[in-house]
TrEMBL record:
Keywords: Oxidoreductase. This is Acyl-CoA dehydrogenase. The keyword Translocase does not apply. It comes from the Bacteria.
Amino acid sequence: MIDGLEESRLAPGTFEELRAAGDFALAVPVEHGGQGASAQTILRRLIELGRTDPSASWVVGVNVVSKTLAGRLGAESLLKDVYADLACGSGRPECGRGTRGADGTVTVTGAWPNVSGCEDATWAGVALMIDGVPHFAQIRVADLRIDRTWRVAGMRATGSQTLVAEELVVPAEQVAPFRPFGVNDVMLFALSVIGPVIGGARGALDATHAMVASGRKPFMSAHASIAESPGARHWLADATHLIERAERTAFALAAAVDGDDVPPADLPRWHMEQAAIARDCRAAVDMLVDLHGAGVFALSNPVQRFWRDVAVASRHPHLTAYLAVENYGRALIQQP
């Protein structure tokens, strides 16, 4: 797996590895030939992938969300095709609009930015407005234009380009009105973001252990190696604790998703936990960067890539801390 700095997408070989490993079938129900994996299994796999390549983990997470949405909102006749390979999508209805024709078809126009993996996906599930009501359309990526707009500091290899539809006529069976999602689904969608973030933090920790084991001497220090420094050991312990705490919190969230239906009243608390995971991972990776020193920013050093990826991915809307605090505070005030 590579960073994709120049191409802003995963290497073709990476997709073959993911496909061969069954990662695109994680969220596909067993009756459709998939794994029907639990939230805990999905989270574990996303973390594992993220330790090597957070962008690959992210694309797999987007595929999980896209196929879950297709299963909830898509027509049964389309599911075999949508489930067959990589899927992508955007949940932003304000980005597109549709007009119904007399024959039931829908003419779609829109531009959906930040659609991860779209250059290699077969189907895209995109949200749009029809007569003032949010809808969901399953569209073949081959019928859309891809504008290569993804120019970012981190998560570069996700290939999160813009999908464009220009007066595209879509069959009626490919369009359906949005229906409310259960809390368990909303939390699963958050896990698709959390897994790559924790995986990236784990990857930075792995690289730091390798650096410490190499016996590298700290610059401007009397220590013969970083391992001899009490401060460095303390820093490493604190960073490890933060990552382990984030992981424990994430698996508690996944266990709740796999259990009974989560009460809507619990969602603000879980949003707080999600935001805490992001903060813990960012703080831990910052400490690991400090242990490496300024040399960590050489492009040949994998830690700078994990640092960039975690910094970007952990600021996804699912993990926005100030909104989580706002919503949780509102919920607490409304309690008797």
